[in-house]
Each structure stands twice: as C-alpha cells, then as structure tokens.
C-alpha cells in the first residue's frame, strides 16, 4: 500500500470516528458527526469546548493568506464521499477547504 493510499485510509477512518461524547463539566452528553452537517458554517450541536478550541486556534472560514488554506494543510481531513465538509485533526466540527488557522502546516 502506498503512503498516499494509507493516508487516505487513515483520514477516512478518522472522519468516521469524529463523533464525540462529552459528559464532563457543564456540557451535556453530545454526539456530533460531520456526516450529519448540512452546511459547513453550521456549528449546531458542536460542544462549546470545541467551538472555543477553533476560536483559540484562530480558525477563519476564508484564509487571509492565498497560498495557506486548510485544503493544503497537513492537518486537513478531506470530506468523505457523502459528506459536505472536511475536518481538522486539531478540533471537531466542519472545516472549509478555503479556511485557515494559525496552526497551518504545509502538506508534505
Ligand atoms: S490546522 Fe488550521 S489550517 Fe490546518 S486544517 Fe486545521 S484549521 Fe485548517
């Protein structure tokens, strides 16, 4: 199996398990999956801690730097076949291909 094929397989598996459960603090137990997201800017159902995390990382839906976008970031998780949105390895929730955060790292 090539490195690219292995990476694609790992990404696909990561997206399948992006559902999360949280039962600590004041947050209610929540299940969230990218497969159910219909709009990539809709954060409905996303735990507050994950919303805060994306803000802390400086995530924006449109990159201010033309050549540095989520779509060419090493941490980007491309959408699965039926999904509308991609994801990020650093936080839960939808990520736009044209988005950006301060942790952008060039894909090797
Ligand atoms: S690390 Fe930042 S730039 Fe990279 S995919 Fe995640 S949100 Fe996008």
What secondary-structure arrangement, pairings included, does this model have?
Elements: H1 3-16, H2 48-56, E1 76-77, E2 87-88
Antiparallel strand pairs: 1-2
The site of iron/sulfur cluster (SF4) has 13 residues, from loops.
Largest beta sheet: what is the strand line-up? 1-2
User: Rg from C-alpha positions?
Assistant: 14 Å
**Count of spatially separate domains:** 1
Low-confidence region ranges: 5-27
What is the approximate shape? globular
Number of helices: 2
User: Distance N terminus to C terminus?
Assistant: 18 Å
* Strand count: 2
Helix content: 10-25%
Compounds present?
A: iron/sulfur cluster
H/E topology pattern? HHEE
Which sheet architecture does the biggest sheet show? 2 strands, antiparallel
Mean pLDDT: 80
Beta-sheet strand percentage?
A: under 5%
Helix-strand makeup class? mainly alpha
Structural notes for this entry:
- By secondary structure, this protein is mainly alpha-helical.
- It has 2 helices and 2 strands.
- It has a two-stranded antiparallel ribbon.
- The longest helix is centred in the N-terminal third of the chain and has 14 residues, at 3-16.
- Residues 5-27 have low confidence and may be disordered.
- Iron/sulfur cluster is lined by residues 59, 70, 73, 75-76, 88, 90, 95, 99-101, 103-104.
Compact overview of the structure:
With 108 residues, the protein is mainly α. The protein has two helices and two strands; from the N terminus they run H-H-E-E. The protein has one domain.
Keywords:
108 residues; mainly alpha; two-stranded antiparallel ribbon; 2 helices; 2 strands; 21% helix; binds iron/sulfur cluster
């Amino acid at each position: 199996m090539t490195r690219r094929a292995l990476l694609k397989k790992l990404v696909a598996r990561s997206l399948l398990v992006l559902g999360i459960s949280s039962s600590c603090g004041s947050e209610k137990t929540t299940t969230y999956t990218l497969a159910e997201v219909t709009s990539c800017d809709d954060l409905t159902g996303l735990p507050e801690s994950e919303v805060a995390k994306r803000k802390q990382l400086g995530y924006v839906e449109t990159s201010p730097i033309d050549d540095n976008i989520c779509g060419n970031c090493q941490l980007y998780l491309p959408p699965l076949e039926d999904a509308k949105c991609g994801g990020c390895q650093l936080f839960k929730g939808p990520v736009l291909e044209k988005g950006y955060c301060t942790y952008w790292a060039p894909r090797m």
